[in-house]
């Protein structure tokens, strides 16, 4: 069976809305991004499989980290997408373009303090020209970094999707100035020929 198909079937069987759930689970297995994550923002969340994964970990964290270190007795997860997303219980989903400034008001009114984790699997609409797509995606990533600088707490983590290309290195340099550790990851479930790559920023400075 084709690899992509098998991920699709697995996702369906396990109740995830999309097979991209496994990319996030792979990233979690490697970097433990969900450690003590209670306040989570997911940018470009449709159809919602990353929200499903985030909810599972946030729920688990409520009991897992009940100690003298940073913990909360509740979680807050917000998802944003231009597309309509079917509701998920206890998750705040808004339909909006997160590059518009109004998004900050929405973030402020939902969260009462800074975020532990920001996820972004957002991607531009590809036109098929690798260079143009790469540049547009980098522009989107730069918009996301503005939100990260404003809303992610000190020591918070970020996962962001980029496309490799000429400006990739300068983007990673920028991320290195924001995070103590920068990792990159090409999940197993990414098509081999794709230039898609995830950057994982750990412990915001
Ligand atoms: C690959 S999908 C996300 C899949 C999701 N992680 C999941 O597992 O269900 C990328 C999404 O990013 C969204 N997106 C791209 N740019 C956006 C923007 N500026 N504002 C809001 N959503 C955006 C697209 O509408 C698309 O639904």
Task: Characterise the protein shown here.
- The chain has 205 residues and is α/β, with parallel strands linked by helices.
- The protein contains six helices and seven strands, in the order ααβαββαβαβαββ.
- Helix content is 40%, strand content 24%.
- A seven-stranded mixed sheet has the order 3-2-1-4-5-7-6, with helices on both faces.
- The termini are far apart.
- The mean pLDDT is 93.
- The structure holds S-adenosylmethionine.
- The site of S-adenosylmethionine has 21 residues, from helix 3 and strand 2.
Strands ordered across the widest β-sheet: 3-2-1-4-5-7-6
Q: Kindly, what is the distance between the CA atoms of the first and last residues, rounded to a whole number of angstroms?
A: 45 Å
Radius of gyration from CA coordinates: 16 Å
In CATH's first tier, which class applies?
Answer: Alpha Beta
CATH-defined superfamily? Vaccinia Virus protein VP39
User: Which class do the helix and strand fractions yield?
Assistant: alpha/beta
Give the count of helical stretches. 6
Ligand types: S-adenosylmethionine
- Would you give the CATH topology? Rossmann fold
Domain count: the total is: 1
Helices and strands, in N-to-C order?
HHEHEEHEHEHEE
**Count of individual beta strands:** 7
Tell me, briefly, the overall form: globular
Low-confidence region ranges: none
Instruction: Give a short account of the largest sheet.
Output: 7 strands, mixed
CATH level-two architecture: 3-Layer(aba) Sandwich
Strand content: 15-25%
Using brief descriptors, characterize the structure shown.
binds S-adenosylmethionine, 7-stranded mixed β-sheet, alpha/beta, 40% helix
